[in-house]
Amino acid sequence: MSTDLDLTAAEWIRSSYSDANGGQCVEFSRTFAQTHDTIPVRDSKNPHGPVLIVSAAGWASFVSGLIRGAFPAA
Predict the structure, then answer these.
(1) Residue 42 neighbours by CB distance under 10 Å
(2) Choosing a second label site near 21 at 20 to 30 A (CA), which of 1, 30, 35, 45?
(3) Domain coordinates in residue numbering, the chain
(4) Which string of DSSP letters, residue by residue, matches 2-28?
(5) Domain DUF397: where (predicted)?
(6) pTM exceeding the 0.85 threshold for the entire prediction
(7) Bridge partners for 29 per DSSP
(8) Per-residue pLDDT tens digits for 4-54
């Protein structure tokens, strides 16, 4: 998996699980899912900070786990 993605074209989506008060915010981009089979993920409070690049299959598995309640709140 390449880590040399040009993220300037990324269209970021804020997670529906993000806190409405601005905390615990995660954004992801589907922009590269078909062309690079990756999903970039970042902290919306730090948009110029580090980005985690995960495989599209890994992201799908993670989202499926969220929907099933596999990750209970701490």
Answers:
(1) 20
(2) 30
(3) 10-68
(4) -S---GGG--EEE-TTS-TTS-S-EEE
(5) 10-66
(6) no
(7) 12
(8) 788 998 999 987 766 666 666 889 999 999 899 999 999 988 889 999 999
